[in-house]
Write a structure and sequence with these properties.
The protein is mostly helical. It contains five helices and no strands. It has one domain. Helices cover 63% and strands 0% of the residues. The radius of gyration is 30 Å and the shape is elongated. The chain binds zinc ion.
């Protein structure tokens, strides 16, 4: 008994070269769309990351509360920049120096709002700033920057 022929071999009359030629551009198109989507996602994430890590550092706004800073010479004189290592508005600068004074055992008893939670909020905010600084300097973040620079289309 002869083996039956493959059932579709006679009805399938598509040239294999044609099929491959049709599939490759589709596959390239799909891959290209995926690459574009991945690049857009990465770019979006990068922008979000930058806004978190650098927005307050380069803007003319207070790093703590976001209030516009008085960058005039008069405004600069108001802030004791030797005691305040951040770009703060005057109010946040005063709160910061109060915080440092409290850590040193001094404090103004009239400042009833400067309690444990207030101390903790300053402590955690300062820790957060340090964490962001370390992240910006770490290898993973620098690799991301290099990766984005290499893949960014020239405009
Ligand atoms: Zn402020």
């Amino acid at each position: 008994m002869a083996h039956p022929k493959e059932p579709f071999s006679d009805t399938l009359k598509i040239d294999p070269d044609t099929v491959v030629a049709d599939i490759i551009p589709l596959d390239n198109k799909r891959q290209s769309a995926e690459d574009t989507k991945a690049a857009e996602l990465k770019d979006r994430k990068f922008r979000a990351l930058l806004s978190v890590t650098q927005h307050t550092r380069k803007s003319s706004r207070c790093e703590k509360c976001g209030a516009p800073l008085d960058v005039s010479a008069d405004g600069a004189d108001k802030v004791d920049s030797l005691r305040v290592p951040y770009r703060f508005c005057q109010g946040c600068s005063e709160e910061y120096t109060d915080y440092i004074d409290r850590l040193r055992g001094n404090g103004n008893p009239l400042h009833y709002w400067q309690q444990d939670e207030w101390l903790q909020s300053w402590s955690k905010w300062i820790d957060y700033q340090g964490t962001v600084d370390r992240y910006l300097k770490c290898g993973a973040f620098r690799a991301l920057l290099d990766d984005l620079k290499a893949n960014r289309p020239v405009k």
